[in-house]
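Below sits my pick:
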Amino acid sequence: MIRSNPSPARAADPSGRVFVVTGAGSGLGLATTTALARRGAHVVLAVRDEAKGHRAAALVTAEQPDALLEVHRLDLADPHSVHAFATRLRTDGPHPDVLVNNAGVMAPPRTLTPHGHELQFAVNHLGHFALTAHLIDLLTQGRDPRVVTVTSANHRRARIDFDDLTGEHAYSPMGHYNQSKLANAVFALELHRRLNTAHSPVRSVLAHPGYAATGLPRAGAVGGVRLLFGHLLRPLAQSPARGALAQLHAATAPNVRGGELYGPGGMGELRGAPVRTSPAPRAQDEAVGRRLWEVSQELTGVPFTVPGAGGA
């Protein structure tokens, strides 16, 4: 496993750049938004609940009155919402320089979206796949453009069951969460390969927060998971601000390269300053990457062709 310490002194200045952060209303997304706003970035808070998003923006502006923030509705479980969000940015702006695919759902009871997809796979992976596809040409024209996809250390415990993605035959709340986080890693690495082939300026980078004290395990998780991660182990967790350091590094540091994964450098990658580490071997399997790409296009109905340099 590759582990190296990035240099905090080399952090880039994000001022003047546009960052789209999904799930920005709370937790890691809000921490990411707050840190970017402090450094002069223009942040689009992409949130399912607009009222919650405006409350989050108010928290940021209370601390940083000159923060450049916009709140737009985005329901990653709804393909129409994803398309409408991207169309709004395309038509009205601002055009993004960096997309942070941060939003997530963790360990709910088995739930299908109106389109028949398992909720965690739909929100954590398919919605972000479609959103990235809709925005990739705009990102190609951005300044130091990147797609940062937030996975979990739990992706190393997973495999993708292409024959039962909905959990119809066997559903495990944590197992399907882990599967969706592996899908995040597989997608980001396959995107990296395709960007390289197209000689695109966009970098596809992975990050994971370790164990952070967010509301995710308590929001909709089943009882055992909620009790364990939301309460019993919570004193061991680092703050959302600390948990967001890896994705902030991936989004802004100039020495970051496409295809890299950043996570906490402490024991078990649960806490600490970000270091570069290695994705699971399954995440790096090119055959799995190609299959997931094709399946994701089919399930979302969104074709995803990576444009070359210049956005052509």
About this structure: Residues 62 and 170 are 47 Å apart (CA to CA). The domain at 14-302 is CATH 3.40.50.720 (Rossmann fold).
